[in-house]
Write the structure tokens for this entry.
Amino acid sequence: MINQRNTFLQTIKEQIKSKEAQEYVTKELQHHLNEAKDYWKQKGVDSDEAEQKAILHMGNPIVLGQKLNQIHRPKIDWITISLLITSLLLGFLPLVAIGYAQVNYFLVHKLLFMVFGIALAILLMLIDYRKLMNKGLGFYLVGCFLLLYIIYRSDSGVFSLTVKIGPLTIESLMALPFFYLTWASFFQSRQFKIWQFMILFTISAILFSMTASATAFFIYGVMTFSMIWWSKFNKIKIMLVLGSFFMMIFIYIGVSLQQMKAYQIESLLAFLNPYEFVTGNSLRFQIPQVHEMIKSSGWFGTKETTAFIPEAHTNFVFLSFIYHYGWLLALILLGILSLLVIRIVQVTGKINNSYSKLLLVGAVSVYATQLIANVGMLVGFFPLTSMPMPFISYGLMPIALNSFFIGMVLSVYRRKDIAMN
């Protein structure tokens, strides 16, 4: 009878193309067969006959396998992929506007970054994210090691620390994916305690702060606390943790104010009172200049090309986009980028598994934080800082980082009809 069951299950598996679905379906059918067998045994039927009746009750294995193949076939989220490719293509427009498209260096590198981003997202889509679920501690250690490496190997001591290895620049933002996978793993476990989180988060937060990257620290904080809100922790405990965290931030700010240098105080005053406080440094880009450029752009952009926009292809790429192409095209760009947020939220609503949902929440928080902060600093809600615009800013990091998170979204969507083991 064991051979009969194995033959039955093997016939069904042959109809199912996805190996991941084969594994899941086999376990489910084994469970249902055992239940049916127990039912017949309770009716007084002997074990062999009960097994045979259970198998016969399941129906034709070929027909059943074909139906299960349709149900559990891996899905491809073409909407998200289309939005990803469209966003990456729109990233070429700022280079065209400021004349960088005529320089082979920028154009070729932008093209390579785009191809790499698409390839990374597709690769992650094909990888079974569920195999990463119990490796949280390993990812945490890798993330901490990467930050320590940046801290102790960097030659920079003024701005955010980075390490050059050949053509590759290692920066603290690269640690985000490791901590993202860490918290998704830990937060889905009921055995993980709030005090453990406090210790692990404090260590990682200190390391991020030591890299002197306010951008990475801010994104990391938003990501972590977005994910913990959807964790299995009690909401009251989460509120206490958030309260403790903000108290630590206020203390840190208070101590930092006592040690701020003149140029740092100048930057803070310029952010708090952009129209009342005008810094004497004529080279410093300020909110009044930003607003004046936005106003002068009009719906279809300006024909002037003499205006100077610092970092026009990186941190201030959206301002460059508005200035050269106008409000209309800028709103279209913002709409397309925002559709990715809406799409991830829609996918999240279709997921019931805790680990999968945490991955989606973490991904959308990282992506949306960059988008909101980059636009927000142009209207004065955020300080003018090194915040990239996802997929639009020039550079490997803005593309690779966000392609990673989009790839994880695609991986979850692909297996949304296959329950977690």
In short: The radius of gyration is 26 Å. The longest strand covers residues 162-165. The CA atoms of residues 235 and 394 lie 40 Å apart. The chain is about 70% helix and 0% strand.
